[in-house]
């Protein structure tokens, strides 16, 4: 009978018997219910569980001491998400629009950039138009929010905005414009107001009129050039106010505007191809898959809504 554990095989574990590579395993190993370490199965399982708990505790203590693991910073990102492009970004697919807006900006002291919500007005300004304008103008950018006088004054002084207990008045804005124009010389001063619809949403009527009147006087005096970007559905409110303040349109010439359209199929596909090019260059096997993905994504984004009750304006934005 083959020796079992504790029977012969001096100092040799049964699993290490040197009976040759083709030898059959000992009979006691093949009996039902028997293991290489009879009676030690529960002990081994308990020891494995203890090691797992120890590992998790060690990992938890390490993270508490060192903090969370920082995400890798060198991983390229194909899609930036719902945020506008900035001055350090390359804006694809908008070269012609940028050129048209640049001609408008140089031809008149007052201009309007309009477009539907989400069409890319802020991206066009921040990533293409204003960096180009900085070569010629002293550029000041501002959003009005609910405090147009305070926001404009701090932007013109290039100071951080702090809400004041007593908001500035029209005279303070006029003085800030004069000082900013003097400091910018010999370059002309360009004031760009983004999200101009805020002027008609969060500001009282009399404050709105006073603010635009101060800007009109500064434009007429040659102190500043004004570019206002706003949503198309607020354009009629701006036109009405400008006509009230300047009936002859000597300063607020409403013919100086540019309407930015949302990307259509061909430009949108060109933009996606540009964004996906780094991934396709890394692995040629992905090119066809990325090409199919870009085509499907453009088709899905530009697909008209199924609900025909939506108005035409809704169809452009859904």
Concise summary:
The chain is α/β, with parallel strands linked by helices.
Key phrases:
318 residues; alpha/beta; Rossmann fold; 46% helix; disordered N terminus; disordered C terminus
What ranges have pLDDT less than 50 throughout 5 or more consecutive residues? 1-17, 307-318
Q: Provide the structure class.
A: alpha/beta
Tell me roughly what share of residues is in helical segments: 40-55%
Q: How do the strands of the widest beta sheet line up side by side?
A: 2-3-4-1-5
Number of helical segments?
Answer: 11
H/E series, N to C? HHHEHEHHEHEHEHHH
Shape: extended
CATH architecture type of the domain at 95-260: 3-Layer(aba) Sandwich
CATH class of the domain at 95-260: Alpha Beta
Percent strand equals: 5-15%
- The CATH superfamily of the domain at 95-260 is P-loop containing nucleotide triphosphate hydrolases
- Looking at how many chains there are and whether they match, the oligomeric state comes to single chain
Provide a descriptive summary of the structure in words:
It comes from Tectimicrobiota bacterium. Helices cover 46% and strands 8% of the residues. The protein contains eleven helices and five strands; from the N terminus they run H-H-H-E-H-E-H-H-E-H-E-H-E-H-H-H. A five-stranded parallel sheet has the order 2-3-4-1-5, with helices on both faces. The radius of gyration is 35 Å and the shape is extended. 22% of the residues are buried.
């Amino acid at each position: 009978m083959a020796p079992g554990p504790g029977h012969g095989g001096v100092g040799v574990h049964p699993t290490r018997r040197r009976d040759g590579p083709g030898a059959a395993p000992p009979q006691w190993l093949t009996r039902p219910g028997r293991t290489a370490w009879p009676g030690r199965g529960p002990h081994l399982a308990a020891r494995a569980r203890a090691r797992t708990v120890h590992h998790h505790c060690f990992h938890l203590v390490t993270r508490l001491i060192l903090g969370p693991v920082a995400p890798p910073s060198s991983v390229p990102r194909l899609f930036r998400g719902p945020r506008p492009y900035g001055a350090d970004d390359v804006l694809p697919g908008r070269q012609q629009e940028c050129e048209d807006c640049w001609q408008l900006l140089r031809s008149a002291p007052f201009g309007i950039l309009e477009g539907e919500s989400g069409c890319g007005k802020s991206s066009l300004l921040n990533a293409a138009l204003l960096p180009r304008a900085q070569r010629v103008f002293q550029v000041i950018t501002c959003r009005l929010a609910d405090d147009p006088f305070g926001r404009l004054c701090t932007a013109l002084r290039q100071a951080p905005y702090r809400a004041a207990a007593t908001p500035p008045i029209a005279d303070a804005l006029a003085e800030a414009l004069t000082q900013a124009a003097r400091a910018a010389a010999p370059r002309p001063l360009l004031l760009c107001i983004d999200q101009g619809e805020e002027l008609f949403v969060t500001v009282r009527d009399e404050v709105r009129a006073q603010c635009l009147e101060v800007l009109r006087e500064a434009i007429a005096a040659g102190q500043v050039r004004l570019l206002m970007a706003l949503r198309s559905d607020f354009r009629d409110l701006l036109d009405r106010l400008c006509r009230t303040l300047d009936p002859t349109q000597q300063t607020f010439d409403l013919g100086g505007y540019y309407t930015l359209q949302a990307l259509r199929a061909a430009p949108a596909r060109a933009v996606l191809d540009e964004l996906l090019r780094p991934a396709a260059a890394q692995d040629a096997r992905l090119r066809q898959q990325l090409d199919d993905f870009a085509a499907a994504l453009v088709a899905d984004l530009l697909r008209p809504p199924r609900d025909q009750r939506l108005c035409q304006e809704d169809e452009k934005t859904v």
